[in-house]
Write a structure and sequence with these properties.
It is a single chain. By secondary structure, the chain is an all-alpha fold. The chain has helices at residues 4-19, 30-47, 55-71, 79-94. Helix 1 (4-19) runs parallel beside helix 3 (55-71). The N and C termini lie far apart (33 Å). It comes from Bacteroides fragilis. It holds the Pfam family UpxZ. InterPro entries: UpxZ_fam, UpxZ_sf.
């Protein structure tokens, strides 16, 4: 079983790949595009109900979810509500996060 941070990192990596698909000049194949969209969407759905054990992990989770939901084309009718929920979670922890260096 993967740790939450490992799952967050995995979602970030797949979302990054989807967002940058084709930017290197290589052709975009529909099966790979579909596969990445499906993978990102399922990972977001899997992690949506999770919460970080620390403020930093919760912030990482929120960023990963927002990036993932932004990257995927899939929407089963509740995507905007889930994005708003993650934004609300982000707002709740924003003032409590330590200042970045």
């Amino acid at each position: 079983m993967l740790s939450l941070q490992s799952e967050i990192d995995s979602l970030c990596a797949v979302s990054h790949e989807l967002l940058h698909l084709g930017l290197d000049g290589e052709p975009i194949y529909s099966d790979r595009f579909r596969q990445l969209n499906t993978d990102v969407y399922h990972r977001c759905e899997h992690l949506f109900g999770s919460h970080g054990r620390t403020l930093e992990e919760e912030a990482s989770l929120c960023i990963a979810l927002l990036t993932g939901y932004n990257a995927t084309i899939y929407n089963h009718g509740d995507k905007e509500d889930k994005i708003q929920s993650v934004l609300n979670r982000s707002w709740d922890i924003l003032d409590t996060l330590p200042v970045s260096l």
